[in-house]
Amino acid sequence: MNTRLYINGEWAAAADGAEFTTSDPATGTLLASCAEAGPSDVDAAVDAARAALHDPAWAAMAPSARARLLWRVADLIEANQADLAELETRDQGQPLGVAQSVSVTGAAEHFRYFAGWVTKIEGAVSPISFPDTLHYVRREPVGVCALITPWNFPLMIASWKLAPALACGNTVIIKPAEQTPLTTVRLVELCAEAGFPPGVINLLTGGPAAGRALVEHPNVDKVSFTGSSAVGREIVKASAGNLKRVTLELGGKAPSVIARDADIDKAVAGNLQGALLNSGQVCAAYTRLYVDRRRVDEFTEKLAAAASSLRLGPGLDPETQIGPLVSLEQLERVDSLVQTGGEQGAELVTGGQRADGPLANGYFYSPTVFGGVTDDMTIAREEIFGPVLPVLAYDDPEELSVRANDTEYGLAASLWTRDLATAHRLAADIRAGAVFINMLPIPDAAAPWGGYKSSGWGREMGPYALEAYTEIKGVWVHLDTP
């Protein structure tokens, strides 16, 4: 399989012919060769997006027509659900059921949700104090948007950026992670089939150099990035040249509080899924499990038993519950952090090693549970992005918000309790962009998504995404006759 760049409505190889490869994380075998965008490709894509921004075919398109285009993309995603899910599983590694029910379904829902917003993006009339003056507010597109997406949920995250950007009338260049470009390529093919005018949507595949060139480009007006906090900081610095608008959804170290009154069996099942969805490669994964000391032994024992019973395997195997990590690099990073946990005194209860035997060629890591973890340990502070569950005990509920907030991150948090007062009090006290009570950390197109502190800037999804992809213009009209 070979993939190309998509610039100004045309598919083509990179200008210098450069390519890179992507592989199946379940087997390590080659999946595809992809065009590697260079500086001239970046310039061409930005020029195409800039021209399309002012082309009447897009700029003057009726909102209802733009809405129909987004709705058509949603229909095409659903019509191609089986192929998209299989491609996501082969390229990223997630179990097919996750690819179907979360990735593909979520992608379609984002396009459908924002299709509904296109005809409802309104301004306002302001009651200003100047006499004989009308003041009204317009919402206008930010302009040319660079959408840079990660490797953990490539299709869905591309959709949750692309749909609102287009709904607001922007033009885009999308740059997927080099580890997992294939479903984004297919998504752009579906957008072309839906009928978007040339230059409105452009695709650049490639590594960090292509992303860096987009961020630094003087004719890019907006960057939306999902990925690590370290790269997010680099983007902030690089975007200073023309003061680009920037939205960042970055790392997380989500605390999960299991209160004394919690249903332990439900809390074990929920935290297992919340921590191990997509092999733990989720920014909002539950990765600090705070359990009442009077129940911590019971919780840890049941959690370890459940984790050790999960079936590892290729995502296309219907019996698989935990798929591979995305790459050898990520597997080695996870293993290094696990080893550090043991060296710092955490008790390894189960897991802690790379899978061998028939799975040895893939990037599989056994679900790992640590007990006796303290707040100062590396595994309780750094984002692991793998199937690792550190369990920490607490004695006084009053300490929970302080401990939960003792982190540079603030993307998500979880509470497991039967007491509404406990739930609402902690939800208010924990500094995180989303708090999930007795449920899994899966976002929805209609709800805001983003973080506090080093977990990012701004919010995506829901009506809040309209703020990220529009500028506000005030218009003043003096009503006296000259």
Automatic annotation (TrEMBL):
Keyword Oxidoreductase on entry: yes
Keyword terms, alphabetized: Oxidoreductase
Active site per the UniProt annotation: E249
Any one Pfam family match given in the protein's UniProt record, by short name: Aldedh
InterPro entries assigned to the protein according to its UniProt record, in alphabetical order: Ald_DH/histidinol_DH, Ald_DH_C, Ald_DH_CS_CYS, Ald_DH_CS_GLU, Ald_DH_N, Aldehyde_DH_dom
PANTHER family listed in its UniProt record: ALDEHYDE DEHYDROGENASE-RELATED
Family: Belongs to the aldehyde dehydrogenase family.
Official protein name in the record: Aldehyde dehydrogenase DhaS
Organism whose genome encodes this protein: Actinomadura meridiana
Organism placement in taxonomy: Bacteria, Bacillati, Actinomycetota, Actinomycetes, Streptosporangiales
